[in-house]
Amino acid sequence: MQSLLRLRAVDPGFEPDRVLSVRVTLPGSYPIAQRAGFFASLQERVEALPGVVRSGATFIEPLSGDDATGVVAHGDEDPETSSEFVEVQFRFVTPGFFETMQIPVLAGRTISDIDRPASFPPEVIAVAISETLARRVWPNEDPVGKRLHFGRGSEAEFVIVGVVGDIRDKYLDAVPPPMLYGHYGVQPMRSMILLVRTAIDPVGISPLIRHEIRQLAPNIPIPDIRPLEDHLSEAVAAPRFMVQLFSLFSGLGLIMAAMGVYGIMMFHVSRRTREIGIRMALGAQPSGILRLVLLQSLWRAGIGLAVGLLSALALTRLMKRLLFETTATDPATYLGVVLVLIGVLTVATLVPAARAVGVDQKVALAAE
Known about the structure:
This protein starts with a helix and ends with a helix. The radius of gyration is 33 Å and the shape is elongated. The chain folds into two domains: about 10-235, no CATH class; about 240-365, no CATH class. It has helices at about 1-10, 30-45, 95-100, 130-135, 205-215, 230-235, 235-270, 275-280, 285-315, 330-360, 360-365; strands at about 20-25, 50-60, 70-75, 85-95, 105-110, 125-130, 145-150, 155-165, 180-185, 190-200, 225. β7 (about 145-150) and β8 form a beta hairpin. The chain is α+β, with helices and mostly antiparallel strands. The strands form two sheets. It has a six-stranded mixed beta barrel with strand order 3-4-9-6-8-7.
């Protein structure tokens, strides 16, 4: 439960509230040279709709688990001999992507239309990089204006135009990876995710967006339009299911353990009714008897709790991969279970003891 709560509290690095995710897939026959123009026109038409604040597109759906990876080397090193390549996640985006997702700009600027491939020599690509990549390659320098080599055996170079905040757009429970953002025109895909930020309830704008898409390309499939917050909910769906499953079985186990403790202690104390009667006849005070019985019960329970805790410490290590920012030896969890069982033990001890103390001494002495 703690893992799920902490996972839901993770900052993904972008603001999903009031953002629509629209998957637009062009036909395979759609000319590559016209794809960038189509999405630029679509963004322009969508941003003209009432209630739309900004829009941008990327070719990988946020929190889908998909990725596009490559390696880069410091621009001052020879890519053929460099011994240290950094694996990065690639994202090709349209202008407006960072503003739509509200990803902060830490240095320089974001990707714009001046970064189209025709604006640079063929082997040079303008990119924005994430904070993690900037720290990794230039820990104590301003990376804006510097260059990165793309892989081995490639003449392509990336020139850094800006640094943006880290995001978790693959998995919420993964450390933000080094990321590199280029202009969509570098590699125009036929399937893109259009992200639309609105100032009003985004669901009401969905029909208007579909209409604009049909106006531009009547023959493409009806796009899937969903709030971006749904992606966040799906990202925790598997952990949420595991929590529900474990909660069910562990809850049943705790109830059975509590019932077992309660029944055993009730039986054990009830059998001491005659002893309690003798103590009362010899002048023992009810409070002293209750304290004595409770301490003896707690001493016995302490042995069981010690064995249980040691077993739990050994077995819960198998759950490490299911936990997020929570250890398998989380003190609060163990303390909670111990307090529950001690509470059950106290009730199971004091109820029959109090009943025995209140019984007439003659009846108590005659009890079997």
